[in-house]
Amino acid sequence: MPPKQKAGDEKSFNWYKTDRYFDQHNIFQHHNTAIEKTRYKLGMQTSSENTNAKSDSLDEPSAYLIEENVALPKDIFHSYLSYWIYEAAHCTPVMFLSLVIGVLISIIILFHDNKNCVGVSVGFLVTFFIIFGCVLGGIFGIPICDRDFKIKLLGETIARRPAGREWRTVAYNMNQYLFDEGLWYTPYYFYCGRKCQYFFNNLVKIEGPNTHPSSPTNDEENTQPDASEIEVLNVVGRFFIHSPDPILEAYLIKAAEINREAEFEYWRKQYPEVDLP
Predict the structure, then answer these.
(1) In angstroms, rounded to a whole number, what is the distance separating the alpha carbons of residues 220 and 264?
(2) Cα–Cα distance for residue pair 254/252, rounded to 1 Å
(3) How far, in Å, CA of 229 to CA of 234, rounded?
(4) Do you know which InterPro entries this protein is assigned to (predicted)?
(5) In sequence order, which residues have a C-beta less than 8 Å from that of residue 157 and are 6 or more positions away?
(6) What residue ranges do the domains of the chain occupy?
(7) From CA 55, how far away is CA 51, in angstroms rounded?
(8) Is the pTM of this model over 0.70?
(9) How many whole angstroms separate alpha carbon 106 and alpha carbon 56?
(10) What is the torsional sign of CA 145, 148, 150, 156?
(11) 161: phi > 0 → left, psi -120 to 50 → alpha, else beta; which?
(12) What percent of the chain has pLDDT over 90?
């Protein structure tokens, strides 16, 4: 018989509620635990049709296993709040400002009898709180704009043709890329696959090229039903000539096309009774 759990061992199951929560070793252990749980769930599944469909979509035999074995922050952290606190705690500017704010609060408490000291400290405290809010908004509110990161994300989308849960693998790969390249403080930038999908959709929507030319005459010609493919290719070619980054634009066009096809195929399999052309 397995030994009974001691009362003192209960603390090990609540490690995320203690100061040890921010220990990198414990995060790594919890990461492995999340992977083992997904592997266990995968072993309980016996549907070969889903496995074959996933493998065929990525053109590799172990694609479905890869998708199920990745562990994202949503699987690792107890809640989104704990994830956000962990991210902020590993951000150097945030930690520095938090330290300064803590020192100012301590000065106010220790020298509360000195009105001049308290007044000056309160002024600095308000100033640093404003700076703290601006830093948080700038770091966590503005998306990463690195060009290579965008091309990497578009390349992952083109290669894997993700739809639904398949975005988990793309999110995991992009998290590792950002951390390895020093573009983010932790390997947990995307909280889940859906966050990565939102980022991709916004990237294509904001930076995607308009393949229609600017002149009204050409607009009318290209909107006619008998517009040839050669004319469309010429329009795209002229756009690339005037584009500041033709490589990025080429990836944007290809990724948007692949994503439309993958989404259409995904939802067609979800609702086969809806007979769409």
Answers:
(1) 28
(2) 6
(3) 9
(4) DUP/COS
(5) 170, 200, 255, 258, 259
(6) 13-76+144-205, 87-141
(7) 6
(8) no
(9) 61
(10) negative
(11) left
(12) 34
